Structure formats: C-alpha cells, structure tokens
What we know:
This protein has eleven helices and eight strands.
Amino acid sequence: MxxxxxxxxxxxxxxxxxxxxxxxxxxxxxxxxxxxxxxxxAIPSFDWGNEKSWDPCLTGVTSAYITxxxxxxxPGATDAIQAFVSLAKRRGVKRLVLLSGRGEAEAQxxxxxxxxxxxxxxxxxxxxxxxxFSEGAFIDMVLNGAITLPxxxxxxxxxxxxxxxxxxxxxxxxxxxSGRIYEVTGPRLMxxxxxxxxxxxxxxxxxxxxxxxxxxxxxxxxxxGAPEDVVWMLxxxxxxxxxxxxxxxxxxxxxxxxxxxxxxAVFAEEVARTGIWEER
Length: 280
Ligand SMILES: NC(=O)c1ccc[n+]([C@@H]2O[C@H](COP(=O)([O-])OP(=O)(O)OC[C@H]3O[C@@H](n4cnc5c(N)ncnc54)[C@H](OP(=O)(O)O)[C@@H]3O)[C@@H](O)[C@H]2O)c1
C-alpha cells in the first residue's frame, strides 16, 4: 500500500526516457509514486511538436517535471512551454519543476513562464552534464580516444545528472522547494583537457582533447547526418554559451539537498567500471 502522502499523486515526467528523466522516473517509482513517462516512445505518446498529444498525458496529473528537447533555446520552445503550462494549469496540475540551462536567455524566458504560472514551481538550472560523455552527444569521441570540440581552454563546471535527478525528485515530492531556483553545477571548473585527463585516468587508456575550429566542427556534424536541431543546438552552445559566462561554481545541489555535488572524476570512475567506454 502507498504511504498516504503519495496517495492520489500522479507525476508526469516529460523526457522520462532521457538522461535526467529516466533517473527521476526510477526514483519516483521506487518511492511508490504513480508515474507517467512523457516521450514520443511512451504510451500515450507525448510529442512537443504535436500539441494534441499533450492532453491525454496530463489526465489526472498532480505534478510535472518538464524537460524540453533538444533545448529550451530552440526557436519555438518558449511558445511550446507557454502552451504546455497553460494546458497543465487548466487540467488541474498543481506543481511544475522545470529543467533549465545556465546562461541561456531563451531558457530564462521559459523559466519566467513557469514562475508566472500561478502554480507551485521550482527551477533546476543546470550546467553541462557529465553524462554527455557517457550517454549523450560526446560518447563516440570518448570511444575513439579523442574529444574533438571547439572548446579551447574555456572552463565548464560539469554537473552529474544523478545530482540533478535528486534535486528534481526533492522538488517534486517536498513542499519546501517551492518558489526556489536551484542553479546546479559540479564542484570543479574544468577545461575539456581536464575532462580528457579524468577520462584517461578512469579508463586506463589515452583520451586526448583536440581543439578544433568552430566552423569545421559544425560542418563535420552536418556531414555526419546529425539531426538539424542537434546541429543547431551544438552550434549555439559552443558559439554562444561557452564564452566564459558560466565559468563560475554555484551551490544549488547543496542548497537543495544539504550535500556536495559529485565530482567528474568520481563519475568517470563509476562509468568506467560499467565497461561502456571499453575500446571497440
Ligand atoms: N545535456 C546537457 O549538458 C544539458 C545541460 C543543461 C540543460 N540541459 C537541458 O536538458 C534537457 C534535456 O536534455 P538531455 O540531454 O537530458 O536530453 P536527452 O537525454 O537526449 O533526453 C531527451 C528526452 O526527451 C524526449 N524527447 C526528445 N524529443 C522529443 C519530442 N519532440 N517530444 C517529446 N519528447 C521528446 C526523449 O524521448 P523520445 O526520444 O522517446 O521522445 C527523451 O526522453 C534539454 O532541455 C537541455 O537543454 C541539458
């Protein structure tokens, strides 16, 4: 039997098969919550590009974790978030938790929509994820032994999605996080060369960082057949967001959870033990 505070609560996790979403789903289910996964592959299917698909996913939902794909900075994201938040409110949703990105003006416009919704809200504004190197766009570079990105010596405080999921679950299930913006980063400012060093140490093989010109990186991405919106997002992230604006640490994980965030080196050791980075 469910504990009484979980009774009658259905939580929608939009992006519930993604890097943060699947961890949020697992934690909520383990704690006994009724969870609905929002993704194009779920049943009922949720598609940001098809407004008609949203309504069936919102039936009976009390709280929602919102992750927008591929990025809140994409053209059209603000309109989609506005429409989704309005519909969620009409359907009786009480609490929204939005995953946002640091240093993105467009993402902050989406944060404003959630904050002005009249519903309970929490914003989780995250730095770049550790898991981009294990579950995301850069895993093939790790497997090939060379991180080839137009990153120069810029620093980024990579954050672990386990920490983001812990913060999101706390915000979805505990009243004390309502009205808070948690800016979450890892504990260390890292260059991409630092990332390569930690990955080399954890895997026991040489993984180098090679700085490449922005234009040739984008051309290579286009030629590799990467989806148009993913190329757009990488272009935006490396040309605009990685300009030093996010080169500082924040204590959002500690504020939300009362503990420090996971270091990239610990993440690298944990993932190396799973064997997914073993040479092809
Ligand atoms: N990666 C980072 O470093 C980083 C940093 C800060 C913030 N963020 C933000 O985190 C959010 C999610 O990024 P992520 O890297 O975690 O994504 P991800 O792991 O690639 O997961 C994407 C999720 O969204 C779903 N999805 C994709 N397209 C969809 C669509 N058109 N309609 C409905 N669902 C869709 C996917 O499932 P289906 O394919 O089944 O639909 C999946 O569940 C983005 O808003 C991003 O800006 C990312």
